[in-house]
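Dear colleague,

Thank you for sharing your sequence with our group. We've completed the structure prediction you requested, and as agreed, I am returning the results in plain text so they can be pasted directly into your records. Please verify that the sequence below matches your submission; if there's any discrepancy, let me know and we will rerun it promptly.
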Amino acid sequence: MAPRFVRSTLLAGLVALTPACGEKEVRPSVDLITASCAGTQPLAGVTHLRFRVTGPGLDTPRERVSTVAWTEADVPAVPQGGARVLEVRAYVGAPDSGGRLVALGRTAPFEVTEGQAPTVRVFLRRLGESVPVNLASAPGTCSLPAEARAAHTATTLPDGRVLFTGGYRPEANGARPVSRTSELFNPADGTFSPGPDVGARAFHTASLLPEGRVFLAGGAESFAPVTLQPTARLVDPGSGAVTELTPKVARYQHAAAVDAAGHVLLVGGRAADGRGVFTADAFDSASGRFVDGVGEVRRVDATLVAMEDGKTLFIAGGADTTGPVPEVLSLGFNGMDLERLANVPPRLRVPRVGAAVAVLGRPDESPRPLLVGGFDGVDPTQGARPVGVSEVLENEMTVRDGPALMPRSNPCAVTLPDGRVVVMGGRGTNPGTTTAVPWAELITPHAGAQPTVLGLPLIPQPRVWHTCSALPDGSVLVVGGVDDSTGEIRANTEALVVMPPPRD
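Please find the predicted structure tokens below.
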């Protein structure tokens, strides 16, 4: 029986010079974590490991295959350079003889400098399984957020950490106390730590600015009765400093996006009495002030996304006072002025309310926003049905069909580092009601062809009003939300991590 290791740390020094260029190669010091705190253990049944290094300047991956009882010589030597990634793949059976890939782990991108062997960490995770986050210091121990949250925000920071802010705590009696706290998740060690006070807010937005701060806007301050958070906050995750600002309009359940110059556009949302807020607002991070005269965008429950060029913002889906709106608006900032970029906007084939959007494709694959889910009407209790077809926002003039997905509204959709999109959870329909669903799907782009969809294992507990965050190792962190699938309101207290199968 193959030995099972909770953690193996192997150190390696310098190896031979590369004759062609005189460049020294080193083997990293690898901290391989091979235990989980729940679910199938990553090494269950595993007989072989493949160590694989990729990065800029490496025309082909550096690979070595070993048994599960690996040694330091099984780690490939790595030439100096940036954005190196070490991947460990675990197989039942020899990989070159039909072995089955069952677990995977990657480092965050790291740098190799001449003469120094970096220390890197890999969490090995079972493919496709949603398992609780575990601690690097004690891999058999699950790591939990300090609070149960729904309708919160999750912002992936440049250093790979994730900032969670606000939200409400779902309680069995229907109460929804709103949180004013924040937390930081560190994927390098699996820990949650307290962040600064951000003001009580739920159904708000969080936008990562080009210089690394996070701009929080709007939200509900309470639900009994509904009152709105009148402030916006600028949060510096490094120092914990928070700056309070006053937007022109209070709103919640709105949409936000930021362009490459640091303009944040806020559209739609609701007032405290439930009516739509159609006044658009914009914040200029360079000057630290809100922009005058942005105008109106008559949408509620719409999506807002920035294109790859960093200048074009798309508004898709949502409803006005008469129902779902099919037109896709393209907007951009010209200095401080917000301009419409197409006089005749394209139309969605299926107008929808409560959709999600994520960018599909790597930078070299002409990435485009993919609109997923939503309801085809405003009120599901009045016959509105969940939408299964997705649509690609091709450019300012064109929308094309995307792949068919499980029909639901309000899923989370997140772009992985390799350009694929994961869609998880959301609201489906039963006769006369809507409930949280456990569905998870992986969407892969293909040059000149329709994207393909792979169904992932169901989330252990259905959820809606949750967040999904892409981590540097290619996994997805799922936090919070509400499970009402059994007729009772239950909070999703565990933080789950899902490792999708590799793209190649």
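Summary note from our side: Confidence is low (pLDDT under 50) at residues 1-22.

Kind regards,
the structure core
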